[in-house]
Amino acid sequence: MRTCALLQVLFTVFGLFLVICDAFPSYEVYALNTFKEVIYEDPLLVLSNWNALDSDPCDWAGVFCSLAQDHVIKINISGASLKGFLSPNLHLLSSLQELILHGNVLIGTIPKEIGLLKKLKFLDLGANQLTGPIPPELGNLSNIMKINLQSNGLTGKLPAELGNLKYLEELRLDRNKLQGIVPANNGSDFTSGVHGMYASGASPTGFCRSSQLKVADFSFNFLIGSIPKCLGYLPKSSFQGNCLQHKDPKQRSAALCGGTPPPTYHASTVSSNKQHQPVEQPRHQASSKPTWLLALEVVTGVMVGSLFIVALVTGLQKFKNKSSIIPWKKSGSERDHMTIYVDTGMLKDVVRYSRQELEVACEDFSNIIGSSPDSLVYKGTMKGGPEIAVISLCVKEKHWTAYLELYFQKEVAELARINHENAGKLLGYCRESSPFTRMLVFEYASNGTLYEHLHYGEGCQLSWTRRMKIVIGIAKGLTYFHSELDPPFTISELNSNSVYLTEDFSPKLVDFESWKSIISRSEKNSGAISSEGAICVLPNSLESRHLDVQGNIYAFGILLLEIISGRPPYCKDKGCLVDWAKEFLEVPEVLSYVVDPELKHFKEEDLKVICEVINLCIHPSTSRRTSMKDLCAILESNIDTSITAELKASSLAWAELALSS
What we know:
Blueprint: H1 2-22, H2 26-37, E1 39-41, E2 63-65, E3 72-76, E4 83-84, E5 98-100, E6 105-106, E7 122-124, E8 131-132, E9 146-148, E10 153-154, E11 170-172, E12 179-180, E13 215-217, E14 222-223, H3 291-321, H4 355-361, E15 368-372, E16 375-381, E17 387-393, H5 402-416, E18 426-433, E19 436-443, H6 450-455, H7 464-484, E20 499-501, E21 507-509, H8 514-525, H9 549-565, E22 570-571, E23 575-576, H10 577-585, H11 604-617, H12 628-638, H13 643-649, H14 653-660
Parallel strand pairs: 3-5, 4-6, 5-7, 7-9, 8-10, 9-11, 11-13, 12-14
Antiparallel strand pairs: 1-4, 2-3, 15-16, 16-17, 17-19, 18-19, 20-21, 22-23
Helix pairs in contact: 1-3, 7-9, 7-12, 9-11, 11-12
């Protein structure tokens, strides 16, 4: 009777075990979903079938599961142009054997949690844009056979812990920015007779311990010192392009290596000791026990093991459901746990101002010259420097996410590369945590916006000649953005408010509204805010900077209409400016009806050219619209803004010229 009861318990527990193991581990699905969350750009839609509501990811693109379909064993998404970070939660894929993300645009650092993937055999993160040091924790990948981190921007020293990888056969670290020596053994070199054999008096931790290492490439870094003798079997090309003492292979010049010769590292004298051989422990023979006692032990063991699994799964489920603190979500009550990834290389050439500097320059931020729901614009004067316009983002710290921080950095980097006489120059930025501050600092165009002059100023200040000069200046600026910058750049909201004028009425294009589109897109598609205050922004809403060349061309046509007519793009009385002007643009005889009545003089030849360009810009078919480069050429070749041309056109030009001077 007792035996039957024990068997019943055994079968019940075993059945429960099968039910638990039948479902795909929720924590692995969670790990994959967080991987997708931090990919903010997927141009090839590789991750389009990664459904967060799907409990079985085995059919997701790039995901490979075990034969039993119960664990993820491989992720292979190469050459997909994915842009984003590496999620630290990948370590939850405890059965992962291959992680291959070669040839994407991954940024940020390599999470140290990758070192927890004990079953990982292949790690390929090559040809990305990863920065920061190689985590020493990668030395815990006890089954790793291949590591490829080539062609990134990795910095810091080579971790000696990589020598702990006894199965490592291939290591590619070339084309990074790694520094320091190639660690052999505790920082020392070794005398080696044959590959994999060395003499040492201490337990080795460097690459001389890697007895299986067949392929290694350390080339084109900034490594110093000498090549460890135990790695002498590698081809010389594996060490070229560094700052090593060896002339052969070819090394970097002293100028690229900092101008000073690298320090000399002498091989330490090591005594020859016998290698420690593993001692096989004798196996203990099991003492004979009654059959019923053995059965009881088996049942007890299964019950304990099953209860442990139940507790583990339940705990992971609770962990998933509650407001957890992870690098990509931020709890409102524990702000210190939000991880912000800062790519220092992206902003290394941009001036960073302190909040105190800008506060002094802007008179305690009292001189507000512009505002929107998302930003305030202050005017200031740097001590001994130029006048500045400071844009301060109106975002509370609790709403600031890692994605928005990334966008801030990207936007600063985008704006910093602009250098043209008809574009507002970014002088620097401010990023501080206490008080929370995100600001952009531009050169100040002292004559206000074109909108103010057209609709609130004295119309006579903008003579026909002056307006034509402004038109051509704007066209030159847009041509620079679209054709001369690589990659191209577009103004988020091109209108008369984005055109600032200098003292001599030279136009400066400034994209003050780019933050509005970024913040509005993130708010529009963000996840619901939970009662605990965690904020989750969906990655597909955080696209890269929107490039709308055709939109800029159309807006340029509207801007031309606004400049020559003096009418706003839209008003309640007369509706849309384009609709009003179309009837005149299509009939050459009445073109003059679109001209601003404030203008006492204009050139009909110029007007015809302007109206021709307007028609090219606002054509309903985007394929029929002409590029800004061609439009600028039309304007420059057909509109003469010289003094001689004005004098020939009208005797009234004398008064116009006096106003333009």
